[in-house]
Amino acid sequence: MRPILLAEGADLDGFRRAVRTLVADGVAPDQVIWSIGGEAGLFGSASHLSQGERSSNAEGGVRVRGKVCPDGAQPLTRTAPPSRPLPLGEVSPRPLHLPRPVAALIETAVCHRDPERYALLYRLVWRVLHGERELLEIASDPLVHRLTLMAKSVRRDIHKMHAFLRFRQVEGEAERYVAFFEPEHFILEAAAPFFVERFRALDWSILTPIGSAHWDGAALSFGPPATRAEAPETDGFEAGWRGYYESTFNPARVNPELMRAHMPKKYWRNLPETAAVPGLVRSAASRVSSMLEQEPTMPTKRSPEKALEAMRDREIKSLAQLNKLLKASEPLVKGATQAVAGEGPDDAEIVFVGEQPGDQEDLQGRPFVGPAGKLFDRALGDAGLDRRQVYVTNAVKHFKFDQRGKKRIHQKPTAGEVKHYRWWLEKELELIRPKLVVALGGTAVLAMTGKNIPIIRARGPAHFPDGYDGYISVHPSYLLRLPDEDAKALAYRQFVEDLERVRAMAADHPRGRVAA
Ligand code: URA
What we know:
It is a single chain. By secondary structure, the protein is of the alpha/beta class. Helices cover 40% and strands 12% of the residues. The protein has 4 domains: 160 residues, no CATH class; 66 residues, no CATH class; 52 residues, no CATH class; 204 residues, Uracil-DNA Glycosylase, subunit E. It contains 19 helices and 14 strands. The strands form 4 sheets. It has a 5-stranded mixed beta sheet, with helices on one face. The protein is globular, with a radius of gyration of 29 Å. It starts with a strand and ends in a 9-residue tail after the last helix.
């Protein structure tokens, strides 16, 4: 018999290594005893294992096995630690070539809490490698059926975590958020990248009884389990979530059974909005009667924006805080990789406003870093301005595009989109109090004036309606689009002249808004 020791939690790495070794040595599934976290009962202590038989995670020797649950399932106590390289001298067997769906099923099913998961998965691998390559297509096969159900349960658990986890702000810490969640399976590491995508700009921790995940704005790390008591009970956003839930609740469609099925009771304690549920259900019947008596009205649009509205009333004290909130906000039009915040010193004298991030800006998360940005930098330098000393931002903070094949073709923002993002621009200007605001192109002019004014008419010094003095010029991408080289050179010279005038205007101009 071959004992294999894997770390607690979803030890995918350990399982892969073990499978490679077992297959290379021709060890059949019924010759393997799988053990998790150093369980001595099955085959004695972990020290009985030979070097090659331990998983790399198990070699860390830090996992302590928990108690066995009455139903025989392993209690959720720890996640597997990040995998470590093999020790020197140990040779990793070559990777196996498994059909993609089999590999995908393994990745998901290892997260299941069933202690038999590894044995079942190895049996699957063995059969696939011994003449049953299409095994997964036989849904009626008992092994396939069981593993498929396990994977489904894991996916559902991940979905629940994505849907029902709520961050709460840590009191006394400017922008740190903590959430507590109780998953059914070992899904923390599989579920965490979703939150990185969503809340890339915030510092957050997710605490669970099987481990914790931490994001510091740059790296994701995993740590020990935690208890509910370690997470904040409530925060200033609670009312916002509740308000949003109440505003989207339709009393005419209330169905407590269905509500419980979609939002199982075990998650309720962690969800601010569920505090509103009993009251909403109780009042549903009377609200329906009064709705029926009322005149029909246009349906109100529901959007995550409403949830953000509540947050927008908060006092914003710094650009860093503003931009963190922006990074966590949803794009108005789907597709963008991330919000692109403005960039530059907090006390810049000149703020340049562009249109919206382009393809490169969307990927890098910084304004004016693509072809138009490069041209802009050159023109700034030629005009005696230093990009590092000015603040550069956009009227619209997310990239809007049309996907054509592999290309993402820029789409001009609508007036409604410009209006939607106007709040962020206002806040940026309030916090920076620049001497001058320079609108580059029509969209920036629309953001600053609320009007569609042709650049050809407006180009030059400007006094914007909200009190800032500044300048209106062309957008650098206009220069890139000009078809002939002479026209380009002339337009570039004129653009540099505009920037020189801006530099001269800033020299003896007061900060902030000025009377017209
Ligand atoms: N165009 C813009 O208006 N902004 C950018 O950040 C890049 C291109």
